[in-house]
Amino acid sequence: MAVTQLWLVRHGESVANIAASRAEHEGLERIPIDIRDADVPLSAAGREQAEALRTWWEANSAAIDACWVSPYRRARETLEIARADDDGPVGAIVDERLRDRELGILDLLTRRGVEALHPEEADRRRHLGKFYHRPPGGESWADVALRLRSFLRDALPTCDGESHGADGGGGLIVAHDAVVMVLLYLLLPLEEEALLDFAADHTVLNASVTHLVARDGRWELAAFSQVAHLQVEGAPVTVHPGNPDVEPE
Hints:
The protein is an alpha/beta fold. The protein has a single domain (3-237), classed as Phosphoglycerate mutase-like (Rossmann fold, 3-Layer(aba) Sandwich), CATH 3.40.50.1240. Helix content is 40%, strand content 15%. Helix 3 (73-83) links the parallel strand 2 (66-69) and strand 3. Residues 159-166 have low confidence and may be disordered.
């Protein structure tokens, strides 16, 4: 069945989101958290957001024929809480290509920390731009795009610009803000400048839903970072724009 609808969900607020935002606000160089990125859990607010996401899941699950999730704990917890006891026919496929962007030597550093501890990398980033700058041991956005192209070829072989029928199915991806942004870059598609302009003006909110629809062989953005389900359920709406290496200048 051709996929004609795709929903992209960012995980709920994590304890690392809180630590990173606090470190930036307090002007620290390092983010004070001692947990491997893959093992970072949801915060209390993040679990509340995931519970509120259940409202969205219950309203849309009948249209979802396939579901993929990042292997990172915060993404898996978000999906598990949202689905609750749903034992329907659609299982979740864990795919490591949906993991968050790796920052290498810049991991757990704030913007101040990058400038103070690795000024040469700050200069390289300014020269190369955020899309192509790859921290030593880490990934550029272009690197993330490469693994997501692989994922799309395997998981959504119909995402190739061919015409889709009206009876197509739907897919759900639960992952991270950088993954959502780069998927938009690939599917809409966008040029580097358009992607970075969009990312500078838009934040993928925690537990938000971004909706893409295929019409006449092309993907269109139907809704970006929607959080109506959080507002309806009284869950907090949290703004954590991701790591400092992708923030606006």
